[in-house]
Every structure is written in C-alpha cells, then in structure tokens.
Amino acid sequence: MQPAAAIPVIEFLDVSYCVAGTQVLSGFNLQVQGGETLVLLGRSGSGKTTSLKLVNRLLSPTSGEVRVKGVPIGEGDVIRLRRGIGYVIQDVGLFPHFTVERNIGLVPKIEGWAADRIRARVEELLQLVGLAPETASRYPHQLSGGQRQRVGVARALAADPEILLMDEPFGALDPLTRDELQREFLLLQQRLHKTVVFVTHDLREALRLGSRIALMEAGRLVSVLSPPDFLRSADPLASAYVRAFGEGLESAANRGAS
Amino acid sequence: MNVFRFILQNHSQVLELTLEHLRLVGFSTLFAMLIGIPLGIGIAHRPRFNKPVLASANIIQTIPSLALFGFLLPVPWLGERADRLAILALTLYALLPIIRNTYTGIRGVDPAVVEAGRGMGLTESQLLLQVELPLSVSVILSGVRVAVVISVGLATIAAAIGAGGLGEFIFRGLAMVDDRVILAGAIPAAILALVADFGVGWLERRLQPR
Fold it and tell me: ipTM for the complex?
C-alpha cells in the first residue's frame, strides 16, 4: 500500500561533496521512492558511502541539497532526522558494553518508551531477524559475525524508521552467512516495505536485493537501472561489471525480482 | 626496631601529617581530574589542539618540583598559604597523565561504534556519557592512578615550603641526621602510595567494560 503522493522519500538535488580539495561527489541527482531498495553500486572511492552519509547528515553537501520526504534536511533537527533513519554499517558498531537488549533498545529508551514496551519490541525484533530470545542478555563479543549483524539490523529497526541506510552490511561475512542474511533481508523487506538505500560493490548482491541499481563511478552517477536492464545494458561500465562477475547473474537478478 | 618505636611514640603526629598529606594529594588529584578529563575529552574531539595541550602538560612535568614550589612562592594569594601553593603545584604535575590517558582512552573507542551511535541519533553528550566515557573509563583511571602515585611522592617535597605532610619528618630527619625520623615520614608515604595504587587499580578493574 504505497501512498499515492509522488514525492520521493529521498532526493539528491545536484549534490556535490568536496573534502580537502578532492571532489568526492559531483552533480549527483537521484530519487529514491518509498518502499524500494535502491542499491548504490560502485568500486571503492566511487562515492557510494559518501552519498549514504549525506542522507543522515553524517556529512553535509558542499553544494546542492538532499531532501527527505520533500523537506531539505539541512534545515531541520539533525537528531530527529537520524532517529527516523535506521543505519547499518559493515563493522556493525554494536556498543560492546551493552547487552544485545540494551543495544537494540537504546533509541527507544532515549525516545522515552516505557520499559515493558521496549522489552516487547526487543523480543519482537530478535524474532524478526532470526535470533533466539535468550540472545537478549548476551554481550556483542559473545556473538558470531552473522549474529552481530542481525543485531545491527534489529537495532536499526528498533524505532520503526521509514528509511534504512545500509553500508555494505554483509560485506564482512562469510559467503554462507551472507547468503542467509541476503535471503532474510528479502523476506524482511517483503513484510516491512522500508525505503532502503543499500551500498555494495558486489554486483551479485545488487542484482539480488535491489529494485533498482544506481551505478557510480568516480563521484558520478553513471546510470540507474532495474536488475534485468542492468544485465542487458550497453553501458560500458555496466557491461564491464557483468563481465567481471561472470556466469549465473541472471538467476541472482530473478531471485531478487521474485 | 627503633623506627617503629619512634612511630608509635609519635603516632598522633604521624597520623596528623598523614592526613595533611592525604589532603594535599586528594585535593590536587581532584582538581587535576576536574581540569584534565574535560581537557582530554576536548583534545580527543578536536585533534588540532592535542599537540599544544599535551606539550604544555609535558613541559610542566619537566620543571623540577622544588623549583616549581619556589617559583610559585611570590604569587600573591597563593604565597600566603603554603598548602594552597602545594596543591596547585601538585595539580599541575598530575595533569599530564590524566589528560594523556583521557585522550588515549577516548581516541581508542572503536570509530565504528561512535559512527553507529551518531548515525542512530545520539546527541554528542549522549554519545560521550553513554558510549565514549564508559568505554574509556579504565584507561582514564589508570592515568589517575599514575597521577596519585606521583603526587604522594611529590607531596613530601611540599614540606620544604612549609605545606606540611609527611615530608616534615623527612626534612626534619635530614636536618637531624636521624634515619628514624626520615623513615617515619617515608614509610607511611610509601604505604599511602601502595594503598592508593591498589585502590584505584581495583576501581579500574571494576569499571572495565567487557
């Protein structure tokens, strides 16, 4: 049930970002629609992570404007903005001195939720990301890499944000765990319909998870394509990607679409 | 042994000087923490200032203690009371380990943890109080521990300017060429240093994050 309004949830308007004289992002225009998973694909240094951090204002654009739900984010309260956006990073960044329960419940807690509501929410989220209820009392160092990232996803979803930013969340996991988490991500997304911006350099992951793929190179947006179109694309960079990843990509794209 | 008989005979004075000593160390450590911890946090967040601040604290550390006590003596309000002056000098010496360890502790917090916290909408003060400080508290305390142990030793020299403390016995003993009197100051001071070291060390382990 998508709202009829055509306002994109996230919008980059001619955004540039410079740091120490280096142009990291230039003339970046992109719209992310409600409920879609937009994948930012590109090699290291192409500006994917920078674009992601511009959305929750961990970085501010040098020029241009980023809008969330039609509102320029430079004007509003940055803390409110961030609490309405789930953020998942490759290194997870769980608080090592907090139990899983406190990690997941932190934002609800500082938002002033009642203790039993937080507990119920934590329980619900653990189940959602496929973790046993007794995980709640564990500390991050007692978990495996895959479990940690599940907690990371649960924590990002805690206050039920509309937007989810994911920066190579499965990049550091072994192939089997990655496969498992990708599959669960798709199931989760079918239920929750969050607006997701997902950064990866893995074409297979992009094809599988993305509803659209935004291909980036050297701080510029090359093209935005659906997974099937990406495979057929005549764009030299897109076809270079397809060649580099070799056989079996169609099945990844189909799985993502199904 | 003679020393212990001497201490027993003069126990009330030993106790009095020990308490004076504790007062010098206690206040100076407290002030050094009140100044050093915020300063350490400040330079951890603004690395631009870390060199000048640490360099200044370092330079203070290189001033011989007797000379520093002497330099401060003519300062108007301070010079009136030797204990004020001693507390100030001890505070200055305690700054370096506290600032440096606070800086190291805060900088040592995993950047991914800080980024995740900031990204999920913690304010800078929530980030500091709930994440950065709890994760660096044991490093900060180990700086405090070094500061306390140094202070206990340095405070004996404060007696040279009449600030009291266990140094009284040491200087008196030196003048009288009487080992018993020297040791009556030195032994309690050593015990004080050991107890403080153990106490803060215990706190440090208690507060260690997992």
Answer: 0.87
